[in-house]
């Protein structure tokens, strides 16, 4: 049996680790441009004060986490309020104030393709849907990222449409709260 996956909020001390991960070729291929360490600090430092809150309550609308197995970080995952991104030009047609979005990446390429991503996303969905206000969770992989698309589908996400985003085409996918 696989050990449980847990999530802990990102801390300022994690920035160098996260920068190293995001610079790895298997992540940088899909997460462009690779942010500098200073850019990571600028983006995530304001969110760290909100780490104890639920994503829907976070003033910045974003909470970054490290996914851990046996207490050891192995992936980055973040949750954000979809409507909070509209000020930056994202998801302008979203009207559901309780919709969340996620992004994730597994740090080590040798851990990919073994079901870990699917387990992580399912565990994270449990955490997010524990907040009874959350109605749906969305994600938006690059349509040609077959590995990510398959992982999200296995975790329960359904294709909505290929959409044009600020970063180019994306496959909008979502999963709704179970009735």
UniProtKB/TrEMBL annotation:
<keyword id="KW-0808">Transferase</keyword>
<dbReference type="InterPro" id="IPR016181">
    <property type="entry name" value="Acyl_CoA_acyltransferase"/>
</dbReference>
<comment type="pathway">
    <text>Siderophore biosynthesis.</text>
</comment>
<keyword id="KW-0012">Acyltransferase</keyword>
<feature type="domain" description="N-acetyltransferase">
    <location>
        <begin position="5"/>
        <end position="178"/>
    </location>
</feature>
<keyword id="KW-0046">Antibiotic resistance</keyword>
<protein>
    <submittedName>
        <fullName>GNAT family N-acetyltransferase</fullName>
        <ecNumber>2.3.1.-</ecNumber>
    </submittedName>
</protein>
<dbReference type="Pfam" id="PF13523">
    <property type="entry name" value="Acetyltransf_8"/>
</dbReference>
<dbReference type="InterPro" id="IPR019432">
    <property type="entry name" value="Acyltransferase_MbtK/IucB-like"/>
</dbReference>
<dbReference type="GO" id="GO:0016746">
    <property type="term" value="F:acyltransferase activity"/>
</dbReference>
<dbReference type="InterPro" id="IPR000182">
    <property type="entry name" value="GNAT_dom"/>
</dbReference>
């Amino acid at each position: 049996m696989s050990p449980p996956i847990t999530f802990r909020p990102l801390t300022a001390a994690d920035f160098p680790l996260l920068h190293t991960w995001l610079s790895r070729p298997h992540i940088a291929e899909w997460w462009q441009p690779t942010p500098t360490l200073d850019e990571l600090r600028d983006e995530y430092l304001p969110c760290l004060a909100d780490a104890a809150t639920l994503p829907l309550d976070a003033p910045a609308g974003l909470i970054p986490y490290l996914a851990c197995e046996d207490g050891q970080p192995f992936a980055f995952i973040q949750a954000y309020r979809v409507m909070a991104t509209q000020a930056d030009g994202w998801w302008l047609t979203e009207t559901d104030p309780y919709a969340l979005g996620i992004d994730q990446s597994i740090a080590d390429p040798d851990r990919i393709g073994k079901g870990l991503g699917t387990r992580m996303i399912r565990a994270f969905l449990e955490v997010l849907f524990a907040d009874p206000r959350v109605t749906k969770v969305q994600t938006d992989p690059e349509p040609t990222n077959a590995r990510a698309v398959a992982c999200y589908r296995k975790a329960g996400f359904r294709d909505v449409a290929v959409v044009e985003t600020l970063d180019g085409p994306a496959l909008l996918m979502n999963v709704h709260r179970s009735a």
